[in-house]
Amino acid sequence: MDSVTMMKRVVAQTGVVVDGIADDQLSAPTPCSDWSVRDVINHITGGATMFAECVDQGSVPDDRLGQLVAGDNLGDDYKASFHAAADHAVASFDAPGALDKMVTLPFGQMPAGVALNLAVFDVTTHACDLARATGQKVDDEELLETALAVGQQMIGPDMRQSGLFGPEQPAPAGASAADRLLAFAGRTVS
Question: Cα(33)–Cα(36) distance, rounded to whole angstroms?
Fold first, then answer.
């Protein structure tokens, strides 16, 4: 399956999870330490916008990056904000020649296709964080296995030491694909 098709599945699955979140769950903790449900939605919404703008423009100016990383990307309608950002990212990556462009992200310059793979891993992991925190489930096994394989190929010690991802945690024998993905991303699973 190509990367853009995989991203569309990630966005669709994450959209289902985001749509299943009730307003009173926004302050709930998630497996992503120190982030509430709202914080995780804000992160993936800002991230989707950042990736889209990088593909569209090559990079994101520092002041804009600060807003996307540390500001409120959700406003009063977290569901609509997530979907608008995700739709923008899909359209940007799906444009002819987009995957061959060079983009500059906070963690380096790379082809947009590589950035897309990082996004697939990151957003799938956060979809699992949100699902776990809100009593939902990400059940697309192929998506989960692909995201884990992408993460295993791309997330090296340098990304863990820099704080982008926590140290890999053990997953119990027979763990689900979601639990193995979360453990690889540094979440404690049982």
Answer: 8
Domains, the chain, in order of start with CATH, read 3-155 (1.20.120.450)
Question: pLDDT tens across 131-183, in order?
Answer: 999 999 999 999 999 999 999 999 988 888 766 788 999 999 999 999 999 99
86 vs 165: CA distance, rounded Å: 22
On the CB side of 159, CA atoms within 13 Å amount to 17
Q: How many residues does the chain have?
A: 190
Return d(Cα 26, Cα 38) in angstroms, integer.
5
CB atoms closer than 10 angstroms to residue 96: 6
Confirm whether pTM is higher than 0.90.
yes
Collapsing DSSP states into helix, strand and coil, what is residue 162?
Answer: coil
Q: Which of 173, 187, 52 is nearest to 116 (CA)?
A: 52
Rg (alpha carbons) of the chain, rounded to whole number: 15
